[in-house]
Each structure stands twice: as structure tokens, then as C-alpha cells.
């Protein structure tokens, strides 16, 4: 027997089948009970949507987090919608799924499809009380009907033989033609439309949650930024939220800070500072603040003029063994010395650059017309001075004394911008004659190499000198 489409039947036949679903003395009805498990996807979807909403009030999601949330939301919406459709259909659909036994035939209703067996086609029917199951055989086909309606099932078994003997044509006998055949195409079309709607709904929920998360993080980030009030924080906010709710205000705050840099520096410069240095740095600050990159470039050059013969002279004069001159000023450590000088310059001027309002960048080829600080470092041996140092290190309770040659360090400092007022030049020289090595863990020898500590002491002196010149230190 083919499946017959309920919607293709004449209206009066449809009404008859709907009426037959109501149990009466001349028929038995066994509806398919909906499994309580269908409520699990609904509950799961509700819990997930609650959690999703809660998760929006957290730090800004990364892209991979959003796609995971979106994927879970899609599954939750599809499963929840499918279960809700099943629950609603079981409660409110006119045509309910199940079995109807009339005096002439057995009707199996499944969704919009109806299958009919005339009793003359059914070979046998019995009820397994222990299994709560009605078994029906028609040729090689076996149908098992789960039911909790024990009395109705027993009465059906008692009545079946009588109905089979007197069975007539039945309600659907003449509708088994292809004209009334059930097709899954409409069902699949409905499911496809439903799936598309669910996908769109899940997408709307996911992107809506992403927007809520972005707005929450936007407000939290701005509150944190305002508490610091630095250009670095305002710019970090703009990187995190390029089109944020407070992006325009962040730009205004940055502008306010930049405008005040020059005046703030002049107000705090020590009276002992070189007036020319203060004027030049003020001009540099103003120029850098107007640049889109707000950068002061730092160019570092180094020249070594080392004479190894000083080692022999020192040995001759002192009778001590000396390490090679390359141990004091290694040619291979030029990058370290440049990095240290750059750090000293950057840190030395950081107190007047608005906590990141202006940047420093080490660059051997700075842009034309940009504010540039150039430091030309010259290191040379001085045969007249010939300074040397005793380097004492400790390994446990044991003291190790090593002798190193020193050198003369000349720092030529130049500051230049696009205007005459922003040019300034000064110099600093140092010939260290003593060095306190301190007590250190022998496992940390790499950080306490003589040349590192030696140059660090020279660089500190240079940094302090700049602080005095520009009125940043007494």
C-alpha cells in the first residue's frame, strides 16, 4: 500500500480522518507519544542563549571565539527549532501521528502521510502485554505498535477476527492511486526553508552578541583608558576599537595632551638648564607633536680608535696581567652599545613626552625634515691617561680579580628639526678609572660581563649629563 498524502485527499475525506482520530465505540486510536527527550534540545538551546548573553559581558572576543560561538548557536537553534516543531505538532496539529483501527481498515498516520491496510490484507494481530506492543503482520511486513493503552489493545485483539470477517472497502480504498501519492518533496522544501530561517536567525543572534560584546568591551576599555589618561592608553583603545563609541573623544584627548607638552616641559625645566637646550627641545616637541607619526628619530654612530699597545704599557707600568682591549670595548658588541644608548636617551626624555604621546625610533636613515637626535660616539685609547680597572667577582667565598684597560669615551650630541630654533649641540666625555663590580651570582655571568657593566657606567654618566643640560635633573 502506498503512502497517501493527507493534503491531496478531498476535504470531506480529510474531515472524516480527523474525526476518526477521536476514540469511540466503533474504533480504536493509538497515538504515538512524543519522547520527553525532545525537551532536551529546547532546554539546551535556552541555556546556551543565556550563556551567550552572559559571555557578551566579558573581554573582547577573538575572531576564533566568535566563530565557535556562532557554530554552537547554529546547532542550538536548529536542534531547538526542530524539537519545538515536533512538540507543537504533537499538541496542536489537526492530524496526529499514530494508528487508527476502524471496523474495515488500519490507518497509520505519520506527519502528512497516511498508510492504509484493509483487514483482508492483515494476516494476524496480537498484543504482547509484557512488551506493551501490538504486533501486526501483512504478508512479509511486520508492524509493531507501542502503546500504554492496555485495555484498548486487549479489546482490539478480541474484536479483530470479527472485523476481519466483515471488513468492507474502507475510507481510503479508492485513493491508492498515484494521483494521491505522498511525496517527500514538500516536506524537504519545508525543512529547507526552516533550515534557512534558522541559519539566518542564528547568524542574527551571533552577530548581535558580537556587537553586544564589542560595546561592552568598548565601554570597559574606555573606562580603563580614562583612569590612566595617557596617549599610549588612548591609542591602545583606538587600536582595540577603531570605530569605537569614544574614538573621536580619544583623538581629542590625544590632541589636548600634545598641545600641552611644550608648555609643560618649559614649566618644569630646572633653572640650571642650558636655555638654548630648553628652547631647542621645546621646538622639537612642538614639531614632533604636529607630525602624523609623532616620532623623534634617533641616529647613533660609533667610531673605535683602539691601540692594543696600551696593554703592553699597562703591563710594564703595573706588573699585572691585563685582558685584551677587545674585552673592554668588544667590536662585536656595537649593537649592544647602540641599544643601550638609545634606551638611555628614550628613558631620559620620557618624562616630558607625555607617557607615549611622542615616540622615539632608532633609525639610521630618518625622514627628511623630521626631528632627529644624533649621537656620535667615539671610543679611543688615551696613552696619557691609560686608565685601568680591577674587576672583582665572587664565586661563593672565592674572589677573582681581573685587570682591564679603559678608554676615553666622547659623546657628541646633536638635536635637529625642521627649524633653526630646534638645533642644539653639546658633548660629554668620560675616562672611567674605577668600577664597582658588585656581588653577583656566577650563574648570571652573562649579564655581568665586564664590557656590559663598563659601558653601562659610561652611558649612565652620559644620561645624567643630558638630564642636567635639558633641566630634567639637578
Question: Please, could you describe this protein's structure?
Answer:
With 474 residues, the protein is α+β, with helices and mostly antiparallel strands. It has a domain at 271-469. The chain has twelve helices and 15 strands. The strands form four sheets. A five-stranded antiparallel beta sheet has the order 1-5-4-3-2, covered by helices on one side. Helix 11 (334-349) runs parallel beside helix 12 (450-469). It is elongated, with a radius of gyration of 45 Å. The protein starts with a strand and ends in a 5-residue tail after the last helix.
Decide which structural class fits the backbone: alpha+beta
Q: Helices and strands, in N-to-C order?
A: EHEHHEEEEEEHHHHHEHHHEEEEEEH
What does the largest sheet look like? 5 strands, antiparallel
The tally of strands reads: 15
Strand content: 15-25%
Shape: elongated
Number of helices: 12
Radius of gyration: 45 Å
State the distance separating the first and last CA atoms. Answer: 106 Å
Helix percentage range: 40-55%
Keywords:
alpha+beta; elongated
Describe the structure in brief.
The protein is α+β, with helices and mostly antiparallel strands and 474 residues long. Helices cover 46% and strands 20% of the residues.
Q: Can you lay out the helices and strands and say which pair or pack?
A:
Blueprint: E1 4-5, H1 11-20, E2 28-31, H2 39-55, H3 63-92, E3 98-101, E4 105-110, E5 113-118, E6 124-128, E7 133-138, E8 141-146, H4 150-166, H5 185-228, H6 231-240, H7 247-268, H8 275-290, E9 295-305, H9 309-318, H10 325-328, H11 334-349, E10 359-362, E11 372-380, E12 388-395, E13 398-405, E14 408-416, E15 424-430, H12 450-469
Parallel strand pairs: 9-10, 9-11
Antiparallel strand pairs: 1-5, 2-3, 3-4, 4-5, 6-7, 7-8, 11-14, 12-13, 14-15
Helix pairs in contact: 2-3, 3-5, 5-6, 6-7, 7-8, 11-12
Amino acid at each position: 500500500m502506498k503512502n497517501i498524502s493527507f493534503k491531496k485527499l478531498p476535504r470531506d475525506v480529510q474531515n472524516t480522518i480527523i474525526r476518526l482520530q477521536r476514540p469511540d465505540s466503533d474504533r480504536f486510536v493509538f497515538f504515538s507519544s512524543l519522547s520527553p527527550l525532545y525537551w532536551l534540545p529546547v532546554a539546551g538551546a535556552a541555556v546556551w542563549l543565556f550563556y551567550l548573553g552572559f559571555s557578551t559581558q566579558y573581554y573582547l572576543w577573538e575572531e576564533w571565539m566568535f566563530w565557535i560561538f556562532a557554530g554552537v548557536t547554529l546547532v542550538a537553534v536548529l536542534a531547538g527549532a526542530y524539537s519545538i516543531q515536533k512538540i507543537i505538532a504533537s499538541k496542536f496539529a489537526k492530524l496526529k501521528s499514530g494508528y487508527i483501527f476502524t471496523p474495515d481498515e488500519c490507518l497509520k498516520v505519520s506527519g502528512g502521510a497516511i498508510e492504509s491496510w484493509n483487514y483482508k490484507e492483515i494476516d494476524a494481530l496480537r498484543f504482547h502485554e509484557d512488551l506493551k506492543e501490538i504486533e501486526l503482520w501483512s504478508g512479509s511486513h511486520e508492524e509493531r505498535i507501542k502503546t500504554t493503552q492496555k485495555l484498548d489493545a486487549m479489546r482490539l485483539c478480541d474484536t479483530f477476527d470479527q472485523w476481519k470477517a466483515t471488513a468492507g472497502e474502507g475510507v481510503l480504498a479508492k485513493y491508492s492511486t498515484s494521483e494521491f501519492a505522498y511525496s517527500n518533496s514538500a516536506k524537504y522544501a519545508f525543512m529547507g526553508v526552516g533550515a534557512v530561517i534558522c541559519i539566518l536567525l542564528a547568524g542574527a543572534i551571533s552577530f548581535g552578541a558580537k556587537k553586544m560584546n564589542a560595546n561592552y568591551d568598548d565601554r570597559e576599555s574606555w573606562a580603563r583608558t580614562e583612569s590612566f589618561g595617557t596617549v599610549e592608553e588612548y591609542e591602545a583603545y583606538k587600536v582595540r576599537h577603531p570605530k569605537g563609541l569614544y574614538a573621536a573623544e580619544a583623538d581629542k584627548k590625544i590632541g589636548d595632551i600634545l598641545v600641552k607638552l611644550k608648555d609643560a616641559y618649559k614649566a618644569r625645566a630646572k633653572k640650571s638648564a642650558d636655555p638654548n637646550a630648553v628652547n631647542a627641545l621645546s621646538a622639537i616637541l612642538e614639531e614632533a607633536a604636529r607630525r602624523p607619526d609623532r616620532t623623534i628619530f634617533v641616529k647613533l654612530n660609533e667610531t673605535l680608535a683602539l691601540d692594543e699597545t696600551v696593554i703592553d704599557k699597562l703591563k710594564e707600568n703595573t706588573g699585572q696581567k691585563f685582558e685584551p682591549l677587545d674585552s673592554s670595548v668588544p667590536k662585536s658588541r656595537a649593537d649592544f652599545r647602540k641599544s643601550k644608548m638609545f634606551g638611555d636617551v628614550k628613558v631620559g626624555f620620557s618624562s616630558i613626552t607625555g607617557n607615549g604621546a611622542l615616540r622615539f625610533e632608532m633609525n639610521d636613515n630618518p625622514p627628511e625634515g623630521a626631528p632627529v637626535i644624533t649621537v656620535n660616539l667615539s671610543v679611543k685609547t688615551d696613552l696619557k691617561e691609560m686608565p685601568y680597572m680591577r674587576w672583582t667577582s665572587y664565586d661563593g667565598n672565592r674572589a677573582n680579580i681581573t685587570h682591564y684597560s679603559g678608554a676615553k669615551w666622547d659623546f657628541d650630541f646633536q638635536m635637529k628639526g625642521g627649524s633653526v630654533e630646534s638645533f642644539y649641540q653639546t658633548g660629554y666625555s668620560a675616562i672611567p678609572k674605577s668600577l664597582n663590580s658588585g656581588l653577583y651570582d656566577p650563574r648570571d655571568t652573562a649579564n655581568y660581563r665586564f664590557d656590559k657593566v663598563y659601558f653601562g657606567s659610561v652611558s649612565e654618566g652620559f644620561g645624567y649629563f643630558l638630564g642636567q643640560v635639558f633641566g630634567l635633573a639637578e
